């Protein structure tokens, strides 16, 4: 009976199920803006800071995104005005949410998540 329980536990283990499951690929549409991974890293870092409640650090990290985005504005805007506009609007919301005198953690998390979603697929928004 013990052996049966051990075998059953092994067969139901998350590691085995993951190994047997087919890989799931992210359904991210390629952006005409090109490689946005640098922006995604910064936004994801911010979301992690917001999620753990460190709004002060997230507020500082927002400046990194804003600076990098602004430095690349001319090039990105020329590639696709619409996609650039969607991401820029989402960035403005995230920046505004974090730069409030007393940022609301829920609003900041939603705004930064929205920015990440816009970076993943700007034409869905």
Descriptive labels:
single chain, 125 residues, mainly alpha, 73% helix, elongated
Low-confidence stretches: 4-28
C-alpha-based Rg, rounded: 20 Å
DSSP helical segment count: 7
Kindly report how far apart the N and C termini lie. Answer: 55 Å
How much helicity do the residues have?
A: over 70%
Number of strands: 0
Main beta sheet strand tally, sense and closure:
none
Principal-axis shape: elongated
Order of helical and strand elements: HHHHHHH
Estimate the mean pLDDT confidence. Answer: 80
Secondary-structure-based class equals mainly alpha
**Beta-strand percent range:** under 5%
What does this structure look like?
It contains seven helices and no strands. It has helices at 2-11, 14-20, 37-51, 55-71, 73-79, 81-99, 105-120.
What's the quick description here?
Residues 1-26 form the signal peptide. The chain is built from seven helices and no strands.
Ordered list of secondary-structure elements with their pairings:
Blueprint: H1 2-11, H2 14-20, H3 37-51, H4 55-71, H5 73-79, H6 81-99, H7 105-120
